[in-house]
Each structure stands twice: as structure tokens, then as C-alpha cells.
From TrEMBL:
GO CC aspect terms: Cul4-RING E3 ubiquitin ligase complex
Keywords of the record: Membrane, Transmembrane, Transmembrane helix
Biological process, per Gene Ontology: protein ubiquitination
Claim: Secreted is one of the keywords in the record: no
Name of the protein this chain belongs to: DCA17 factor
Pfam families with a match to the protein in the record: DCAF17
Gene: Dcaf17
Length: 529
């Protein structure tokens, strides 16, 4: 098939880009390579932004700093403070207030929140649905949808009916489509346990479709069905993940569970009779009925045993990462095929580092199927590839590495003083000793296709950190940004890199929080910042 016929038009453009294969042509069109295709302007602009940002003359300047006695959160250009009562935009040249609501009572405290953005190409029932909103869960079991621009309550749903009183967590099953509201683990009071009363229901899960917000159903995770040693549950990408105290992880088809065990579908605002109790679904005090009753153990999709229930799936073809379920194997990662549990060639990854904080590993969020393994002074980006002459077997190969700058670090066990006295050290430094440059954070900026790392060196009470941008394809260092504020490695830190913005949130002891905002500026002779 000739590409001109497949493209149905501009032959000059095809000849200019040198495309002579229909598959390549269709791929390039899907990626927005031609001027009349949707998305090409955005791609060009982001490419320009990446080039400008990585220029030597471009700097990142600390334009705003604030401190708070309550947690600080960041979502898509918005900084939330005072338990989401205060919203500040970080997109402007100087962060400015979007809205400030009056201080809420303890009974209205927000437990968790998710940012909800409008899906593309869909007709929605309300004009407010086309703007970003914030879904929040309050301590009194109200699910609220708030305007991201004003904080106004757009929708409210009461969750807790007769079955559950303590919903605490929000998460996505399918991002921006299906949301899960999870309860805290049900625990009987001590007096009830002493009286011999048994608690069989461990968790409740409420499932919602978003935009428009609609109730799919609520189900319980019961000991009688899933076993006595269940410690936690999660739902992701249509999979129900059940974790057990002995390190076992089991996967079930969540969509099949909803379809098989749904007793009766109900809608928000519908008058409903549930076990003799009549009320309006989603209104106080009726709440939501538990209309999905799992009466038998669902078909098991997969199970694995891993230390601390650490289990990840990714790559292509599908693989999973576990740590053998023994404490002596902590820091050892096995990469196995999901199809037949076969260990990949070179599939045992171990940093062999001596450090207080363990190394960590995960599938690359860029959907390339690669794996990122982070140690104190080394980041390895690994890839899956076919074993030569064995197409059905995969091996783990190194794509590139990023090494911490420890050129000036000397760790001799024997030193000689100025007077000539020989001094022998009784100990050796740990690999993550604060006086040596150590990787603390690794992240990926998807719009600019950059891998970002935060490396820290602490001498005495003064710690210094820098944020580095690396080419995601080859790992080449493109830009380094020193953070002005001191970095204490004993504190909790979060660093967000969002296009031309860098934001650092720090949690100090006694619930003291700080936020530092950096923005990209063009350097001039008059401005050394």
C-alpha cells in the first residue's frame, strides 16, 4: 500500500519527511508530526520549552516561600494549604491566591483528595463539569466535588449508611474515570473482642464513575471469603489486589466481581429500600447501600509471595517484580515473566549497598517497559529484551546508568596526620552517609520527557541539594539546579517538577511544613539569581 493513498493527501509533506512505509506514516500521524494534525502545536511548544529550559543561561529562581502548621499539597499548578481551605496558583509569575475559605470545623476535616479533570471529546451534563474540580473525602464520610477555581461545592454524597462509618482513602481504579473510596480497617473495640464477638468484614470499597459522578456499587472484603490474614486491599486498572500478613499477594478480576455479585444497581438520588430501611441513595442519613455481596471466592488470576507485599507489574511482555519472602533477601529483586513465572535472564537485581535506607525499584512511568533501580549513589535504567536465538525468553539488560558525584570523597581506612601519626578507622562509611552525595528522589516529567533526580550532600547541620534533569532516552545530564534552602536528610521531602516550575515541600518535626517555589527565568548580567 502506498503511503500517499493511505494518507489521502499531501504528497509533498510525505516526501519531505522521508516516509515510505504506511505503518511508519500512520504512527507519525498519530504522534502529531504533520502541521494539520491535532497536538502538533503542543508538541512543538513543549520541545521549545525543553530546549530553552536546558540552556546554560536559563536559571530557576526561588520566587516564593511559605510556612504552615498544616500539610501542604500540590496538584497541577495549584498549592493547597489549611486542609484545602486555601488555594494558591503557582502558574503566575508570582504565586497568588485563588481562593481562601473560612476555617472549617474539625468535623469537616478533609481526609483525602483527588484532582478531577475533564475528559476530552465527551458531552457532559453540566457546564461546571468541563472545568477542573477537586474530589475530597471528609472525616464525617461526605464525598464532595469542589470547583478548583473557587472551592464551591458542586456535588455532595453521603457515604456512610448502616454498614460502614469510617471511609478514609481515595484512589483511582482507572485514572479520571473510575474512583475507589476505601474504608479504614474495621476493628472491634477491646470489650467486644473480650466478649468473643467476631468481626468478619475488614474493609468496604465504594466504586464511582466520575464526570458525571455516578455510583456503581459498594462491596465488603470479608474474612470468610478472602481469609483471616488479610491486611490490606487495593484496586488498580480493573484488578482487585488483596494483601496478606505472610507476604502473599493475590489478584482478582475486579470488573468480573462487580458483574457477578451485583445484587441490584442503584443510582444517586434514587429512593431505595435496603433491608427494610428506606432512604435516598447518597443523602444523609441513608448513605450508600452495600449492593455487591461476594458470596464465594472469585476466580484467582495470579498470586505471588513477596517480602512486605512488595509487588509490581509492568514491562512488555508483562513481567512482575518481587523480593523473595525472607528478611535476608531485603534489597534483592526478582524480575519474572507474568505468563509462566520464569525468572528473566539476569533477572536478579541487587545493588549490594550498605545503607540505612534501602534501594528501590519500579517500572518506568514513561510506558517504555523499562525498569528504574535506585541506590544511594547509582541509578540504573534497565530494559527487557529477547535472548538471542531464544525468542520466548527475556533478559534484563542495562540501558544506561546515572552515578552520583563523589569525586572528592575519600574513604581511606588508614590516614596519616600532619605529625606523621598513623590513624586507623574502626568503621567504614555507609553508602548513604550524609556527607556523601546521595540520591533521594527520582521522578519523570512526561510532557518534557525528562528524568529528574534530587541528590543531597549534608555536612554538619547544613545540607545542600540539587535537582538534575537527564535525557530520558540516554541518561545524559542536561541541567542542574541548586536548591537554595538547606536540606535536612532527617526530614520528609517532596519535590515536584512541572514544566517550568520546581516546587519543594518539606515537613519538619512537630508538624511544621514549608513550601519553596522556583520558576524558570532568563539570566541577565544584572541578575545573578
Amino acid at each position: 500500500i502506498c503511503p500517499q493513498a493511505a494518507g489521502g493527501g499531501d504528497r509533498t509533506a510525505l516526501r519531505a519527511c522521508g516516509v515510505h512505509n504506511v505503518c511508519r506514516l500512520l504512527t507519525r500521524r498519530a504522534h502529531g508530526f504533520f502541521a494539520r494534525d491535532a497536538g502538533v502545536a503542543l508538541r512543538k511548544n513543549l520541545g521549545l520549552l525543553r530546549k530553552i529550559m536546558c540552556q546554560e543561561s536559563t536559571k530557576f529562581k526561588n520566587v516564593w516561600t511559605t510556612h504552615s502548621a498544616s500539610p501542604i499539597a500540590y496538584e497541577r499548578g495549584r498549592i493547597y494549604m489549611d486542609n484545602y481551605q486555601c488555594c494558591i496558583t503557582s502558574i503566575a509569575q508570582q504565586p497568588r491566591l485563588i481562593y481562601q475559605k473560612s476555617k472549617c470545623a474539625k468535623s469537616e476535616k478533609i481526609e483525602d483528595a483527588l484532582l478531577l479533570e475533564c475528559p476530552l471529546g465527551e458531552m457532559l451534563p453540566s457546564p461546571s463539569d468541563y472545568k477542573a474540580s477537586l474530589i475530597v473525602l471528609t472525616v464525617q464520610n461526605w464525598l464532595l466535588r469542589l470547583s478548583a477555581d473557587s472551592g464551591e461545592v458542586l456535588e455532595k454524597v453521603y457515604l456512610a449508611g448502616s454498614c460502614c462509618k469510617f471511609f478514609r482513602y481515595l484512589s483511582w481504579d482507572t485514572p479520571q474515570e473510575v474512583m475507589i473510596v476505601k474504608s479504614a480497617q474495621n476493628k472491634l473495640p477491646a470489650a467486644a473482642r473480650q466478649a468473643g464477638i467476631q468481626q468478619t468484614v475488614l474493609f468496604y470499597l465504594a466504586v464511582f464513575q466520575v464526570l458525571p459522578l455516578s455510583f456503581i456499587g459498594m462491596l465488603e472484603i470479608n474474612k470468610k471469603i478472602f481469609g483471616n490474614s488479610v491486611t490490606d486491599v487495593a484496586v488498580s486498572n480493573g484488578i482487585l489486589i488483596v494483601m496478606y500478613s505472610m507476604g502473599l499477594v493475590r489478584l482478582y478480576n475486579f470488573k468480573a466481581i462487580l458483574e457477578q455479585f451485583m445484587e441490584q444497581p442503584v443510582d444517586l438520588g434514587q429512593e431505595f429500600n435496603w433491608n427494610g430501611q428506606v432512604g435516598v441513595v447518597g443523602k444523609f442519613p441513608f448513605g450508600l447501600p452495600c449492593n455487591i455481596k461476594i458470596t464465594d471466592t472469585p476466580p484467582l488470576l495470579f498470586e505471588a509471595s513477596s517480602l512486605e507485599n512488595a509487588f509490581q507489574i509492568g514491562g512488555y511482555p508483562w513481567h512482575y517484580i518481587i523480593t523473595p519472602n525472607k528478611k535476608k533477601h531485603k534489597g534483592v529483586f526478582h524480575i519474572c515473566s507474568l505468563k509462566d513465572n520464569a525468572l528473566a535472564k539476569n533477572g536478579i537485581q541487587e545493588m549490594k549497598c550498605c545503607s540505612l535506607e534501602p534501594d528501590w525499584i519500579y517500572f518506568h512511568p514513561d510506558m517504555s517497559g523499562r525498569i528504574i533501580h535506585v541506590g544511594p549513589n547509582l541509578i540504573k535504567v534497565l530494559k527487557l529484551k529477547e535472548v538471542k536465538n531464544h525468542a520466548d525468553q527475556m533478559e534484563i539488560a542495562e540501558d544506561f546508568t546515572i552515578v552520583a558525584n563523589r569525586e572528592n570523597c575519600v574513604n581511606n581506612s588508614v590516614t596519616v596526620t600532619a605529625s606523621g601519626r598513623v590513624v586507623k578507622k574502626r568503621f567504614t562509611l555507609l553508602d548513604d552517609d550524609p556527607e556523601q552525595e546521595t540520591f533521594k528522589i527520582v521522578d519523570y516529567e512526561d510532557e518534557l520527557d525528562l528524568l529528574s533526580t534530587v541528590a543531597v550532600t549534608q555536612i554538619g547541620a547544613d545540607g545542600r541539594a540539587h535537582l538534575d534533569f537527564h535525557c530520558n532516552e540516554h541518561g545524559i545530564l542536561l541541567k542542574s539546579i541548586p536548591l537554595k534552602e538547606s536540606w535536612d536528610v532527617t526530614y520528609s521531602h517532596e519535590v515536584y517538577f512541572d514544566k517550568d516550575l520546581v516546587l519543594h515541600i518539606e515537613q519538619k518535626p512537630n508538624r511544621r511544613f514549608s513550601c519553596y517555589v522556583y520558576q524558570m527565568v532568563c539570566d541577565t548580567a544584572k541578575d545573578d539569581d
